[in-house]
Amino acid sequence: MPEYRNPKPTVDCIIELPGERIVLIRRANPPVGWALPGGFVDEGEPLDVAAVREVQEETGLHVKLSEQFFTYSDPRRDPRQHNISTVYIGSAEGEPQGADDAAEARAFRVDDLPKDLCFDHDTILSDYVTYKRTGQRRKL
């Protein structure tokens, strides 16, 4: 039987907190750096449920998803393998606490994000800032 090397589905979540802040995690595992909370979708799990679960596991926050933002599928977006990430926007209250495979979780103002972002999360966050300021989404 042939080996199929299909992309793996993942989710990421842009969590909006009061004060125009968003939550990032500092990854405990390679590739290390700051990233949006997220991870792999479990078999039989809907994408939105996976996003809520990953946020809870990595930040301790209970996120309320407001919209599906965009799906990022560049084969080079993750150095480990070809992953496709569906990104959600949601809101939460409280302060994040790093847990699971997040060494740390912090809220950042969108104008003061760390420079060492993993994967393509700099692109995702740039798209998000453009969307919030202009209403324009990334073009296909």
Characterization of this structure:
By secondary structure, this protein is α+β, with helices and mostly antiparallel strands. Strand 1 (8-17) and strand 2 (21-27) form a beta hairpin. The protein has a single domain, classed as Nucleoside Triphosphate Pyrophosphohydrolase, CATH 3.90.79.10. It contains two helices and seven strands, in the order ββββαβββα. The mean pLDDT is 95. 19% of the residues lie in helices and 34% in strands. The longest helix is centred in the last third of the chain and has 14 residues, at 121-134. Strands 1, 2, 3, 4, 5, 6 and 7 form a seven-stranded mixed β-sheet that branches. This is Hydrolase, NUDIX family. GO terms for molecular function: hydrolase activity. Keywords: Hydrolase. Residues 6-131 form the Nudix hydrolase domain. Pfam families: NUDIX.
Which features would summarize this protein structure in a list?
globular; 2 helices; Nucleoside Triphosphate Pyrophosphohydrolase
Itemize the secondary structure elements and their pairings.
Blueprint: E1 8-17, E2 21-27, E3 34-35, E4 38-40, H1 47-59, E5 64-72, E6 83-91, E7 102-109, H2 121-134
Parallel strand pairs: 1-6
Antiparallel strand pairs: 1-2, 1-4, 2-3, 2-7, 5-6
GO molecular function: hydrolase activity
Protein name: Hydrolase, NUDIX family
Family: Belongs to the Nudix hydrolase family.
